[in-house]
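Fig. S4 source data, part A: sequence.
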Amino acid sequence: MPRPIGRRAEIHATFIHHVAERGYESTNLGDIAAELGMSKGTIVHHFGTKAQMLRELEETYMTRQLAAVALMWERLARPEERVAAVIHASALLHEVARDATVATQREVVQLAADPAMQQVRKLRREMQQTVVLEVRRGIAAGTFRDLDPELTVLQMFGSLQWMWAWFRPDGSWRPEQVGSAFVDVVLGGILVKRSRLKDLADPVGGIVATVRTCLEEAQST
């Protein structure tokens, strides 16, 4: 049986859905209050400001993704497996946590200069550097080509984080297919030998199964 959702959590979930559908600037606390049959003051009592609601979304989302990555790292040892896992996760998150994923990706610009978003920026850098370290490991092991790890990871995340603009998990492509296509392009471009590429990109393979399990475990905490 699903756990009952509290009033505060219900407010925040509705806020996240509105941001995913409309964007942060077009999300109105009055609309959320009307939808939930409460006063706007009740929302302010729980959260203070709309900006605080966004900060809570971003911090919770990134904390959960880092927890999921830590689980993946426990179960996948090789750099190419770990990089593939992060790519697969980016697509699967559109199914596992659709609203939060779209909301956080489309509002990344809100993090750029706001001093209150310092913790969120720190978490995002931690995620990025975690993957950079794996690319460096892969280069040192001779698995990846000799390339710039920072630039490679920026290119990777830059394309993955734009997925919200065109991908719908109830559309023509399943998340596993989209993740597979990205792994094929990204790892296909940096692997020295591509003999394992088919397994790394396999939409029904072991890496995808591991990633889905880790994401679901992290989401439930």
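Fig. S4 source data, part B ends here. The chain has two domains: 1-48, 51-219.
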